[in-house]
Design a protein that fits this description.
By secondary structure, this protein is mainly alpha-helical. It has two domains: about 100 residues, Alpha-helical ferredoxin (Fumarate Reductase Iron-sulfur Protein, Chain B, domain 2, Orthogonal Bundle), CATH 1.10.1060.10; about 80 residues, no CATH class. Helix content is about 55%, strand content about 0%. The protein has twelve helices and no strands. The longest helix is centred in the middle third of the chain and has 16 residues. The protein is globular and about 55 Å long. The protein binds iron/sulfur cluster (2 copies). The site of one iron/sulfur cluster has 15 residues, from helix 2 and helix 3.
């Protein structure tokens, strides 16, 4: 039987020395270096058993500069933003905010599996809110399925039909007044966060 050998040790030379300083500049991530690796965050996280890197490891890998490892990790997508880790951390590290920032980095770098639905949904949701001020669920679902798994969408045609006939799914785009104002606000936030990896268009 063939034995597959994987490298399990990470070498400092593989790290990106600019990664941790860049993450630390982002809002809520300032205390990244204060971690004492106590593991409380991993212990309280309800989803850590499903994560390839626990929250404690996420902090360690991030501050050590292992950018690729962390941006490809499933942890940043599994995090449910429950803030349990953040309220329990003895060093007041905002782990949830750090994970948000890593998610933004991964979206910008497109460092996630092709057709992976969560970042696609996040991007399409933001685009729709920016363009219309509201989301129209039917359009959002169609866009998501087209960009991820159209076959799965076609298999759900019965459910789609029920949602349309029961009036749960409409095909009239919902919109707010003064959309331009909202776009200006979001652009300002994006510019401000641009340095911090914010929601750029
Ligand atoms: S709880 Fe806080 S100090 Fe402890 S490992 Fe997690 S981030 Fe580090
Ligand atoms: S915020 Fe995310 S990482 Fe923290 S405990 Fe909740 S699911 Fe786990």
């Amino acid at each position: 039987m063939a034995v597959r050998v994987h490298q399990t040790i990470k070498y400092e030379a593989e790290a990106d020395p600019t990664f941790a300083p860049r993450i630390k500049e982002k809002r809520g991530c300032e205390k990244l270096e204060a971690c004492i690796q106590c593991g409380t965050c991993s212990g309280v996280c309800p989803l850590s058993i499903y994560m390839d890197h626990t929250p404690r490891q996420v902090i360690l890998l991030t501050r050590s500069g292992f950018r690729d490892e962390i941006l490809k990790s499933n942890t940043i997508w599994l995090c449910a933003s429950c803030y349990e880790c953040t309220v329990s951390c003895p060093k007041d590290i905002r782990i949830t905010d750090i994970i948000y920032s890593l998610k933004q980095e991964a979206i910008q770098a497109r460092a996630y599996p092709r057709r992976f639905p969560i970042p696609v949904l996040a991007r399409e949701f933001y685009k729709m809110v920016r363009d219309f001020g509201r989301t129209t669920e039917s359009f959002l679902v169609v866009k998501l399925l087209m960009k991820t798994n159209i076959l799965a969408g076609l298999k759900m045609w019965k459910l789609g039909l029920q949602l349309v006939t029961s009036g749960r799914f409409g095909f009239t785009p919902e919109s707010i007044k003064n959309r331009r104002q909202l776009q200006q606000i979001l652009d300002r936030v994006g510019d401000d966060n641009g340095k911090n990896g914010g929601p750029k268009k």
